[in-house]
Amino acid sequence: EKQMFWLDMVVSMTVVANAVVLGVAIDVESEWPGWDWIERAFLLVFVCESIVKLRMKGLRPFFCGSGWQWNILDILIVMMGIIDAVLSVIFQSSHSGSGFVLVRLARLGRLARLIRLLRFRIFRELKMMVKGLFIGLRVLFWAIV
């Protein structure tokens, strides 16, 4: 459990760093090719994290034990990242217009990594704020209808 705690802390710091890099990349110079390499480095960290967690927990507890929902979300986010990396390489070389739109849509999946932060105790208040926001939006929806 102590090893898992440290792994979660390192990964949560990596998610925050990834979010900062995404913000800077969009704000500063979005066409710099180095951003793709930095993003691939983050993706490699997340792939390694998934593999380590899978090996530490075992296959059955990973997918059926406590926290299985978060584990599946992590795997889906990592898969979206891999798809994004592959699409960006494919469509970067072909300069296809429709492919460029597909790559942009896949990159929105990068923001899903921020959802991972909500599972950590450190972000409990943030999780409560997000839940409150969604509850408020639901009430507002019914008030408008």
End-to-end distance: 48 Å
Radius of gyration from the alpha-carbon trace, in angstroms: 18 Å
Please report the number of helical segments.
Answer: 6
Largest sheet, in brief, is:
none
Question: How many strand segments?
Answer: 0
Parts with pLDDT < 50 across at least 5 consecutive residues: none
Instruction: Report mean pLDDT, rounded to a whole number.
Output: 81
Helicity, as a percent range: over 70%
Helices and strands, in order, run as HHHHHH
Strand content: under 5%
Identify the overall geometry: globular
Helix- and strand-based class? Answer: mainly alpha
Describe the protein's topology.
Elements: H1 2-27, H2 34-57, H3 59-64, H4 68-94, H5 97-107, H6 124-144
Helix pairs in contact: 1-2, 2-4, 4-5
Overview of the structural elements:
The radius of gyration is 18 Å and the shape is globular. By secondary structure, it is an all-alpha fold. It has helices at about 1-25, 35-55, 60-65, 70-95, 95-105, 125-145. The protein contains 6 helices and no strands. Helix 1 (about 1-25) runs antiparallel to helix 2 (about 35-55), helix 2 runs antiparallel to helix 4 (about 70-95) and helix 4 packs antiparallel against helix 5.
Summary tags:
0% strand; globular; 145 residues
Concise structural overview:
It is built from 6 helices and no strands. The chain is mainly alpha-helical.
